[in-house]
Specification:
Blueprint: H1 3-17, E1 22-24, H2 27-36, E2 40-46, H3 50-56, E3 70-74, E4 77-83, H4 101-110, E5 139-140, H5 146-152, H6 155-167, E6 170-171, H7 173-181, H8 183-189, H9 192-199, H10 207-216, H11 219-223, H12 225-228, E7 234-236, E8 243-245, H13 246-256, H14 265-273, H15 278-281, E9 283-284, E10 289-290, H16 294-308, H17 313-324, H18 335-342, H19 347-361, H20 366-374, H21 391-398, H22 404-419, H23 425-436
Parallel strand pairs: 2-4, 5-6
Antiparallel strand pairs: 1-2, 3-4, 7-8, 9-10
Helix pairs in contact: 6-9, 6-10, 10-13, 13-14, 13-19, 14-17, 16-17, 22-23
């Protein structure tokens, strides 16, 4: 090995001692080019940015070669530094740089391009929207040949869905097919933490679109097969007997939920999982589908699925709590029921979950409106809204038979409680007995 290449390896070791990756690009090809060079030039791919390189090598100069981040001259040898591929989501074959713009130029000058020594990957720096054509086209489109662009960084597939959902843009057809064809590789090579980083950038009001795109592209089937399977579970949508899949219902509720809690990303995510228990509880009794206890089962299943997505534990606890109690506000609650409901954590979110569910079904809000009116009564002391004795207990204490007079006594008992004349169960019994006389 010639001295310039030994020195290049020494430079790589200096970079690696500072906890960065570095290597000489395509040594075999560079040796061939080096034979015809009057001045030796060697290309190095490395992880640190130009600022860090300048600290490691004080003699670093501004780059002259296309795509380079810096240039170092030592004697008669010039070293060109290029950014190494550090994307976890790139295809394994795209990780190792085989050629650089400078090497391409030299090969074009010599008129030869040995295919066994060079591959399409050329190192360059990445920015947020790298790999996409300008959005001024009115659609989401990957640059160049979409399949090849996606191979460079499979995270672009998830990012395309996120951008399409947030900006309400159509995904160009060839780009869409690249994502669908590459769905399995996207899930193979993109870390789930990176997927969730993109997911968290989806606005709450657009999350239903993102989930729909995940399902349509077959990504949801690999990421959350339990949720995708809800597309095969049928339920009755409304009193007219209209059928829908549970997944269709879930996506519809996700669309309605942010109408009231606009920026509640976590609550909207909880909606995605709120009916997952129906997959495990579905039973047909010969006439209709039932999903008994799906809220309890769903909370347990969701905990496993959310852990798979690397959701923080405190967020998992909140989501599972919402799933466990999401049916509470659907029933017409009594005063005591309202008090128990308001004692629950996150009850405002539970109210909006119920509202969104009913709006998605297109059914009457009778019970919901009743409960909303009773919410204010939940802040009042119990003795001011509910008498110590109900109608049956009044008849038992007084020996009276059923009739309107029992209701009159009950109303007067409540007034006595509010006035402070009756403060215990014993006093209530004595009051109704005296009232009878």
């Amino acid at each position: 090995m010639s001295q310039p290449f030994k020195d290049a390896i020494g430079i790589c070791k200096t970079i690696m001692r500072n906890s960065y990756d570095a290597y000489v690009v395509n040594t075999l090809l560079q040796k061939e080019l080096h034979k015809s060079d009057r001045e030796a030039e060697i290309d190095i791919a490395c992880e640190p940015p130009a600022e860090e390189l300048a600290r490691l090598f004080p003699g670093l100069q501004a780059p002259e070669a296309e795509g380079s981040i810096g240039m170092l001259k030592e004697g008669e040898v010039t070293y060109h530094f290029y950014p190494a591929d550090v994307e976890d989501a790139s295809h394994p074959e795209a990780t190792l740089a085989r050629i650089t713009p400078r090497m391409l130029k030299r090969l074009s000058e010599t008129g030869s391009l040995p295919a066994h020594l060079a591959c399409p990957y050329i190192p360059r720096t990445y920015e947020t929207y790298d790999g996409f054509v300008s959005f001024e086209t009115g659609e989401i489109r990957l640059e160049g040949i979409p399949d090849e662009t996606l191979r460079r960084n499979y995270l672009l597939g998830i990012r395309a869905l996120r951008l399409a959902a947030n900006f309400d843009l159509h995904i160009e057809r060839n780009t869409w097919m690249a994502i669908v064809k590459g769905a399995s590789r996207i899930l193979d090579y993109v870390p789930v933490t990176d997927i969730m980083d993109e997911w968290r950038k989806v606005e709450a009001e657009n999350m239903w679109k993102f989930v729909q795109l995940l399902f349509d592209s077959m990504l949801l089937h690999g990421l959350l097969p339990e949720i995708a399977a809800l597309s095969r579970v049928i339920q009755i949508k409304n009193e007219e007997g209209v059928e829908e899949t549970v997944l269709e219902h879930v996506i519809a509720v996700m669309q309605k939920y942010p109408e009231e809690l606009t920026y509640d990303w976590l609550g909207t995510l909880a909606i995605l999982f709120h009916d997952v228990g129906k997959l495990y509880c579905a039973e047909h009794d010969g006439e209709r589908w039932t999903f008994y206890q799906h809220h309890r089962v769903g909370a347990k299943v969701a905990r496993k699925l959310l852990s798979r997505l690397s959701i923080p534990q405190q967020d998992i606890d909140v989501i599972c709590h919402l799933i466990r109690h999401h049916l509470r506000f659907h029933s017409m609650l009594t005063d005591k029921g309202i008090r128990r409901f308001k004692a629950l954590d996150e009850y405002p979110r539970l109210i909006e979950m119920a509202r969104a569910d009913l709006k998605a079904r297109g059914v009457a809000l009778t019970s919901f409106n009743h409960n909303m009116k009773y919410l204010e009564r939940g802040d009042m002391p119990e003795q001011m809204v509910e008498p110590f004795l109900n109608g049956n207990e009044i008849m038992e204490a007084t020996g009276l038979k059923p009739g309107p007079h029992v209701g009159i006594i009950r109303d007067d008992l409540l007034k006595a409680q509010i006035a402070g004349q009756v403060n215990s169960l014993e006093e209530a019994v004595a009051y109704v007995k005296a009232y009878k006389l």
